[in-house]
Amino acid sequence: MLKLFIVDDEAPARERIKELLGDIAAELPTEVVGEARHGHEALERFPASGAELLLLDIQMPGMDGLELARHLVGLESPPAFVFVTAHDRHALDAFELNALDYLLKPVRAERLAAALRKAAGAPRDRIAESLRKAAGRPREYLSIVERNRISLVPVRDIVFLRAEQKYVTLRTREREYLIEDPLVALEREFADRFVRIHRNCLVARSAIRGFERGTGGEDAAWMVLLDGVEERLPVSRRQWPALREIAAEQGGS
Amino acid sequence: MLAVSIRQDVSAHARADQLPDFRNLGVLARMLVGANLLAGAAALAAAPTIAQALERFIASAMVLEPLLMACLIVLYLATAPLRRLPYRAGCAAVLAVVLALSALEHAALERVTGEPPAPLWRMLALAALGAALLLGYFRLFTRAYSPALAEARLQALQARIRPHFLFNSLNAVLSLIRKDPRRAERALEDLSDLFRTLMGDARRFVRLADEIALLERYAEIEQLRLGDRLRITWELDSAPSDALLPPLVLQPLLENAVYHGVEPGTGTADVLVHIERRGDRVFARIENPYADPAPQREGGRGGNKMALENIRERLALFFDAEARMEAMQRGSRYSVELELPYRHAT
Q1: Cβ distance B269 to B261 under 8 Å?
Q2: Model pLDDT, residue B23
């Protein structure tokens, strides 16, 4: 019995999927163990549901299906995904969905059965990469997985990201978290938002308040002053030329 | 029922007969070619052989071409005041210009060569005949072509349904068929009415009552999909149901309100539809919660500006400068206001 979780913001669409699952139950027995109306609800309810596969609407309020899936793959035993969308083909060109299993609304029973079978049996190792490609844009949240719980930090709240041994420290004004994403991947994904100031550190452009010389005379490194965080971060010599432009824009200090 | 359209359309409304624009290159070229064709035809009719006809044509061209040039120059310069005259008066003025220039030319030829090429009455009659024929041709020409252009633009501008809405609606209807076949039937009827209007004649005015019925059918479908996330308040008590307006002016505005104001949110969103008569104007306002578009999401939810521009252009085609549309954002509410002249079915 395949355990499923359905995420769609429209109640009739969830009902329809359940009807179709009933129709194909003889050849593919399934059980719906959970439902959610949007991404945040799904993140809350999914881990405890014990579902092995998610049926996910792509276009949803708040957080879309692709971003939701990108957070769920961080779980210890990530589920399989089948995406469902009402987009027309033209709009679908914007997404690179080919590597993923997806269905077009209205869904046909036989297509649903085929997609479920294929997704449930597929290897999960490349899924994170496929999802990143399909989304084609940066996430709005970073996720922190603690045991079997996922919490989200909005990317716009992040002041800096610093690599420390095995993890990356994520600092907001309020507190800090440890995440597993490699710094290089974060730099690439959020190039618009963060600037590298040091081999091990990315800072939100909008949080930079100014620069000052560290103690130790002429040779001392420049330090970044941040909005809302006391800590000052050193700028490496290599990154200084790029940062000088930002310093100039802000009038320097 | 919907689509009891009134037999009054743009072509009848905006396209009274008008003099051609004499500064238009195409018009000038047509006048040159037309006048010479007439002269050529006259020469052919009058002479027994081709050679003689050619000779005759050349002889008449020596009289015709200077006159034609003079006429073109005067009309070119006077085109603006001429086009402001009522059509008949304008035609009379053009005829007067042609006759005066012909008389002038006749006098000049008489003085230079000693003997005129033809008696004055004959020159005036031929000139008047040529001018009348050309004016008649231009009248037929503009009648045949400009409404077609306006129509083509209107059809192209007619609001298009979003595929996302269509497929989600069909999906919602499918979900009803087993549990609530009657509601499913009604939903399909609503969809049919919506599509009938979308594929219908973009030139015809519709009654406000019909456009409101369409709004309600559309809302019914959205309600099915969105349930209690969508709450619409209708303020229609003083809406003049006999007012005439272009089809599909209000429905796309409501669709926008749902698409941009309701769908991106997870809670209940209030949408207001307010229509009233204010003296000789019809006033409508559609209001929805303003969802802050995160910059990254703009690609996904774009198209609002385009829909508004589309409606604005159609209003201009129907009402010229008499209609007004304005979109504004106040705090957490976004609204579009529309004002049209109050015209009603007679």
Answers
A1: yes
A2: 82
Q: Look at the pTM and tell me if it is higher than 0.90.
A: no
Asked whether the beta carbons of residue A61 and residue B168 sit closer than 8 angstroms, the reply is: no
Find chain B residues with C-beta within 8 A of A19's C-beta. 175, 178
Residues of chain B contacting residue A39, judged by C-beta atoms under 8 Å apart: none
Of the listed ranges A219-233, B202-216, B278-292, the least confidently predicted one is A219-233
- Burial class of residue B290 (count of CB atoms within 10 Å of its CB; 0-12, 13-18, 19+): middle
Of B338, B152, B164, B155, give the one whose Cα is nearest residue B259.
B164
Question: According to the model, what pLDDT value does residue B148 have?
Answer: 63
Run of H or E residues at A119: helix A109-121
Burial of A218 (0-12, 13-18, 19+ CB in 10 A): exposed
Specify the residue for token string 């085929």. Answer: A114
- pLDDT in the model for residue B225: 92
- The pLDDT value given to residue B325: 93
Backbone angles phi, psi at B234, to 5 degrees: -105, 120
* DSSP per residue, B13-39: HH-------TT-HHHHHHHHHHHHHHH
Position B327: which residue type?
A
Contact B46, B53 (CB under 8 A): yes
Chain B's closest residue to A38, CA to CA, is B266
Most B-contacting residue of A6, A7, A8, A9 (CB-CB within 10 A), to test interface: A9
Does the pLDDT of residue A98 top 80, yes or no?
Answer: no
| A–B interface: beta-carbon pairs under 8 A | 72
- Dmax over CA atoms of chain B, in Å, equals 101
Place of tokens 């957490």: B332
Note whether B225 contacts A12, CB cutoff 8 Å.
yes
Identity (one letter) of the amino acid at B269?
A
Cβ of B174 within 8 Å of Cβ of A37? The answer is no
Confidence category of residue A8, pLDDT binned at 50, 70, 90: very high
Closest-CA distance of chain A to residue B310, Å: 21
Q: Residue B224: list chain A partners with CB under 8 A.
A: 12
Residue A62, pLDDT > 80, answer yes
User: Which chain B residue lies closest to A95 (C-alpha atoms)?
Assistant: B300
Residues of B in contact with A38 (CB under 8 A): 266
Label residue B7 by pLDDT band (50, 70, 90). Answer: very low
Contact B220, B186 (CB under 8 A): yes
SS3 state of residue A216: coil
Phi, psi values for residue B257, rounded to 5°: -60, -40
Mean pLDDT of chain A: 89
Report the pLDDT value the prediction gives residue B13, as an integer from 0 to 100. Answer: 44
Phi and psi of A32, rounded to 5°? -85, 115
